[in-house]
Amino acid sequence: MSHMTVEAAVSPLYARFSRRFRGIVIDWAIAMAVLFGAVMLAVSVENVHFSRVLGILVIAALLLYEPVLVSFTGGTLGHHLANLRVVDDRSGGNLSFLKACARVVLKGMLGWYSFLILAATRRNQAIHDLLTRSTVQIRDPAKARSGQYITERVELVAVGMPSPVRRAVVICGYWLLLFVSFLVVLAALAAAGLMSRNCVYGDICSGVDKILNLATSVALLVMMAVVVAQGWKGRLFGARRA
């Protein structure tokens, strides 16, 4: 209770993106370690049949890793180590195996774009959370610090807030401006010789080009997320809170 308010202690604590990102990094590291270990084992054994069977088992384990652990324990190893739990909105318990599978598929299809709407939701939900009616919460509130979670954002439906449709339209308009700006930046980098034209216009990139492309893409995602957060809170020109 030393890091929490009384109000937070009696309300669900929804994980911030920074906490969820930590869990993702841990799970990614585990997956890489498993793949590296499997490759090293296959190379050392030098048996085609063994390598094929091992490859199938590793792929199956990685595909089932999140659905199995989320449905049976409430989270992956990354979730557990980050003090997080995936919760079914309807039951308040763990997700069913099928719903956990659907959640993984949606997350894989949408990638980082799924997290753009976090700040526009009342319970810090990504798109894959909303579609499967789940939330990611702090597992043990006693171990949580205030910067790791939010409580439900009731201000998003406060009096004087622009309608959801208006806020969504304004956010899309800002997104369009950001995307156009992104294309202009890429063209400027190519014109200045900092990025090859083959990369910008032909998707044939060198190592340096890929780094610059990744940096600009990450910057675009961050700015899109900021626009969502500010727009849904009624802080953007065109859809300000009264």
Domain count, please report it. Answer: 2
Roughly how many Å is the radius of gyration?
A: 21 Å
Form type: flat
Helical stretch tally: 9
User: What is the residue-averaged pLDDT?
Assistant: 91
**What is the N-to-C succession of helices and strands?**
HEHHHEHHEEHHHEE
Assign a percent range to the helix content: 55-70%
Strand content: 5-15%
- Specify the structural class: mainly alpha
Calculate the terminal CA-CA distance, rounded to whole Å: 37 Å
Low-confidence stretches: none
Instruction: State the strand order across the main sheet.
Output: 1-4
Largest sheet data: 2 strands, antiparallel
Number of strands: 6
Note down, in words, how this protein is organized:
With 242 residues, the chain is mainly alpha-helical. The chain has 2 domains: 6-152, no CATH class; 158-240, no CATH class. It has 9 helices and 6 strands, in the order αβαααβααββαααββ. The radius of gyration is 21 Å and the shape is flat.
Which SSEs are present, and which pair or pack?
Layout: H1 6-10, E1 14-15, H2 17-45, H3 48-73, H4 77-81, E2 84-88, H5 97-110, H6 127-131, E3 134-138, E4 149-150, H7 164-191, H8 197-202, H9 207-232, E5 235-236, E6 239-240
Helix pairs in contact: 2-3, 3-5, 7-9
Summarize the structure.
The chain has 242 residues and is mainly α. The chain has helices spanning 6-10, 17-45, 48-73, 77-81, 97-110, 127-131, 164-191, 197-202, 207-232, and strands at residues 14-15, 84-88, 134-138, 149-150, 235-236, 239-240. The chain folds into two domains: 6-152, no CATH class; 158-240, no CATH class.
